[in-house]
Structure formats: C-alpha cells, structure tokens
Amino acid sequence: LEHIQKSFRGMQVLRDVDLQIKRGETMVIVGSSGTGKSVTLKHMVGLLAPDSGRLLIDGVDITAARGRKLEAMRAKFGVLFQSGALINWMTIAENVALPLYEHTSMGDEEIMTAVREKLAMVNLFDCEDKRPSEVSGGMKKRAALARAIIAEPQILLYDEPTSGLDPIMSRLIDNLIQSIQKNLAVTSVVVTHDLHSALSIGDRIAMLHEGEVAELGTPDEFIHSKHAFVQEFIAAQFSSGKVAETDLLEISR
C-alpha cells in the first residue's frame, strides 16, 4: 500500500497509509475503533478503491483494476469476515464448497473431498450436514475459515477473527491461524483488537493512528514502543490499566 487516502462523506479515514507486507509473513493491524483497520483490509481485496495512492500485489498495480483483472487478483485471496458471513439456509459443507462451485469446474465428489479436508484442518468433524444456526459461534468462525482456505489462496485476510469469542476459543483460532499460515505457506493479514492474539500470531504489528501507520515492528518492538498511544492501547487491554512487561513478553513467545 503506497500513500493510501480514503474519505467518506467528507470524513477522512485513511490519511496516508504506507505499508509493505512480506510474502509468507503474518502482519497484524491494530488500533482503536474508527482508525480505518477494516477499511484498509477492504482496499487490499478491491472492495474499496482509494481516493489516492496505489495498491500493488506481486508488483502489479491493481488500484484501478476492474473486470477480469480484478477477478484474477481476488482469486489470490481468502477472506474471513468478522461475522463469518455464512449463508444460513446452506449446510456447513455447502458453505465451504461454495467458492469451488462458483469458480472451478470440479465435480461433486472432488469438491466434497476438498471440503472434508479443510474442515479437518480447522478441527470441525461431523458438522458438514449442520446449518450455521445449529453450531456455536466458534464453530461458525472455523467453518468460515475453512471456506476462506478451500481454494488454497496465496493471501488470507482476517477481520477480527476472535471477535465475540471466549478466551479459550480465541486462543484456538489463534492456533489455527498459525497452523494454516505454516501448512499452506500463505501470507496473512489480521485486523484485531485482541492484544494477546496480535502478540502471539504476528510476525510484525502495524498500529493505525489518525489514518496513518504510526508504529510498525515485531511484537517485541511493539511492546517497547515509546509512542504514548501504543502504551495506552496496551494498558487498555487490562482492567487495571497496568500490565507487567514480563506478561507481554510471555504472550509474544
């Protein structure tokens, strides 16, 4: 992303977002509400176009991509939306299979083999015939993750993957993100409010503040940042407003 700017109805959300994500890394984007984290994510997959600036994928400028060029670019991506975005009247298996039916010529048997393989990767067994309303919130997130990886994308985007989940399920999702990143050799971009998640899964952490990348570094560098708003963000994750550095270092390991 090169100097991305974006406004909505006269309100500037992204002022100058400049960010390079390395192939194969897990980049975590954090920041307070309204700083443009999800807006940044939507730019990456072409759901939003910037007012100015450029987006390049593998060196190809896709800022103004349309039609087949946009579709070819999107084929590189898998997306886990915050809500999961499962289709309620379809079974879990049908939801996961949908990208293959929409974008490939694979037959039913081949598709179901792929669906069961991906459901196994996210630890979902004996759920393929259930509907989203019949499973827990954590299982919905895992089913949505299976759908995001079914076409074996090169890049995975996660929008608040642990939102609405209890701590145990949140850590399970963190472990799955790390496992998928390793086993599928994908590049991952994760938007989250969850500090524990950011420190444990991120190779680097970018903090958005007032529409710009105000801090960027490894988890250890992030913990030791001298920026006041970074320390405020860290402290706000704890009820006491105080946190021991040793606790943060333990999480980041």
Overview of the structural elements:
- With 253 residues, this protein is of the alpha/beta class.
- It is 40% helix and 21% strand.
- The protein is built from ten helices and eleven strands.
- The chain has helices at 37-44, 67-74, 92-103, 108-121, 137-149, 167-184, 195-201, 219-223, 228-235, 245-252, and strands at 2-8, 11-17, 26-30, 52-54, 56-57, 60-61, 77-80, 155-159, 187-191, 204-209, 212-217.
- The strands form three sheets. Strands 7-8-9-3-10-11 form a six-stranded mixed sheet, with helices on both faces. Strands 2-1-4 form a three-stranded antiparallel sheet, with no helix packed on it.
- Strand 5 and strand 6 (60-61) form a beta hairpin.
- Helix 3 (92-103) packs across helix 4 (108-121), helix 3 packs parallel to helix 5 and helix 4 (108-121) crosses helix 5 (137-149).
- The longest helix has 18 residues, at 167-184.
Number of strands: 11
Mean pLDDT across every amino acid position: 86
**Shape, principal axes of CA atoms:** globular
Helix content: 25-40%
What oligomeric assembly is this protein in? single chain
User: Helix- and strand-based class?
Assistant: alpha/beta
What is the structure about, briefly put?
With 253 residues, this protein is an alpha/beta fold. It contains 10 helices and 11 strands.
Relevant terms:
3-stranded antiparallel β-sheet; 40% helix; globular; 253 residues; 6-stranded mixed β-sheet; 10 helices; alpha/beta
Strand and helix map with partners:
Layout: E1 2-8, E2 11-17, E3 26-30, H1 37-44, E4 52-54, E5 56-57, E6 60-61, H2 67-74, E7 77-80, H3 92-103, H4 108-121, H5 137-149, E8 155-159, H6 167-184, E9 187-191, H7 195-201, E10 204-209, E11 212-217, H8 219-223, H9 228-235, H10 245-252
Parallel strand pairs: 3-9, 3-10, 7-8, 8-9
Antiparallel strand pairs: 1-2, 1-4, 5-6, 10-11
